[in-house]
Amino acid sequence: MIALPETLCYLNGEYTRLCDAKVSVLDRGFIFGDGVYEAIPVYGGRLFRFSEHIARLGRSLAKLRIPNPMDEARWLATARRLVQDHPAEVQVVYIQVTRGVAMRDHVVPAEPVPTVFMMTNELKQASAEARHQGVACITARDFRWERGDIKSTSLLGSVLARMVSADQGATETIMFRDGWLTEASSSNVWVVKEGALLGPPKSEHLLEGIRYELLRELCEECGIAYNLRPLAEAEVLGADEVLLSSATKEVLPVTRIDGAEVGHGALRGKPGPVYARLYEAYQNAKKLQSV
Which sequence ranges form a coiled-coil region, renumbered to this chain (predicted)? Predict the structure, then answer.
């Protein structure tokens, strides 16, 4: 049996030690995966782009017709208490809201009482080696459901997708639907072509990562062209640079895809200049956009 940590967590209005927290086996999050979640990075005790994360949580809840149990101020106060109790300098706050407890039935209850859970863990950041050398990815067909825009706790599709790359010692699985880029198993994917940062347009097939807007802002700050448009698989494989972004990866260079090196000329198989500029700007943003 795995020994659970004794750090503080929040469950349905009470603070308790994580090792003591319990939910009902009839919780719809357990039975159906009927819930949503967020993961918010914390740097030096301050939550990064907190309002944007809570706004996305609200959008996911609304799409599932689960009432939002807290306003932003209460979400922030609860998260701050957990962060203050944890010793790590760099953390990630995890929020999960399910439709709550009910007898098993595919029809949702008329007046659900959501189960609300929050915890924080130390955030494992990308290694210096990964940033210096870049990471490897594997490609796969996007076989997940059609509502990737909902940050659902029903993550089996993403788990299976991540197994594809994990089995080959790679960092991520980059997915394509009918030959067009969607996202990776737990990251957004970006392409650099002729100095411009390109990403797939927002749609129901992919999650609008918080870094969508952040990278747009950083590109504007750095004088880098930014455009969202459909990206064919050939464009990704032939890109000058490929990047991953997520709460835990921040922005990370991909230098090998399916065993082939990314890029051209002297920079082939190496992190590129657009990544370097965006990563530096990202570090500055962490100091300015945290609460």
Answer: none
122, 152, 167: which is the final residue of a domain?
A: 122
Q: Tell me the pairing of strands 180-184 and 188-193.
A: unpaired
- With contact defined as beta carbons under 8 Å apart, do 16 and 7 qualify? no
Helix (H) or strand (E) holding 235: helix 233-237
pTM of the model: 0.93
Query: How far is Cα 189 from Cα 215, in angstroms, rounded to an integer?
Result: 12
Q: Angle at which helices 273-288 and 210-222 pack, to 10 degrees?
A: 110
* Active-site residue, selected from the candidate residues 63, 124, 151, 249: 151
Q: CA-to-CA distance for 197 and 216, rounded, in angstroms?
A: 9
For 80, the domain range is 8-122
Contacts of 261 (CB under 8 A, 6+ apart): 255, 268, 269
- Tens-level pLDDT at each residue, the chain (291 residues): 677 778 999 999 999 999 999 999 999 999 999 999 999 999 999 999 999 999 999 999 999 999 999 999 999 999 999 999 999 999 999 999 999 999 999 999 988 899 999 999 999 999 999 999 999 999 999 999 899 999 999 999 999 999 999 999 999 999 999 999 999 999 999 999 999 999 999 899 988 878 899 999 999 999 999 999 999 999 999 999 999 999 999 999 999 999 999 999 999 999 999 999 999 999 999 988 888
Distance CA 162, CA 181 (A): 16
How many domains, in total, are found in the chain?
2
Domain boundary among 122, 140, 158: 122
Q: Is 249 a catalytic residue?
A: no
